[in-house]
Amino acid sequence: MNFSDVPSVKPADVPEGTAIVDVREDDEWQAGHIEGAQHIPLGQLMERYGEVPIDDEVVVVCRSGGRSARAVQWLNANGFDAVNLSGGMGAWSLDCELPIVSDGENEPTVL
């Protein structure tokens, strides 16, 4: 699958208040996620797309950008305005040192 035509945004360029959908699996989400993000695992997206905001741009994130790119392609083909978070959670937390929150007791060392 070619992701070169998938619209994307760098973590540092995500405007505050932007809707974020995290398509990672439950264990990845629990290890650490962007505060305020909505969790819809990629495998559930077609069933739960009604939970994705349709009137605003949505940033979609996964671990490194592959799953979220697939999600962005599907969402945009179905009337949404979605962009992929370049580099995924690794770029968000490790490269840009932007904050994450965790559902577990310990902060993750690797996302």
UniProtKB/TrEMBL annotation:
**UniProt superkingdom:** Bacteria
Protein source organism: Saxibacter everestensis
The chain positions of domain Rhodanese read 14-101
Q: Coiled coil located at which positions?
A: none
What's the short name of a Pfam family annotated to this entry? Rhodanese
Which PANTHER family does the protein's record reference?
FAD-DEPENDENT OXIDOREDUCTASE, PYRIDINE NUCLEOTIDE-DISULPHIDE OXIDOREDUCTASE
Under which name does UniProt file this protein?
Rhodanese-like domain-containing protein
Q: Which InterPro entries match?
A: GlpE_sulfurtransferase, Rhodanese-like_dom, Rhodanese-like_dom_sf
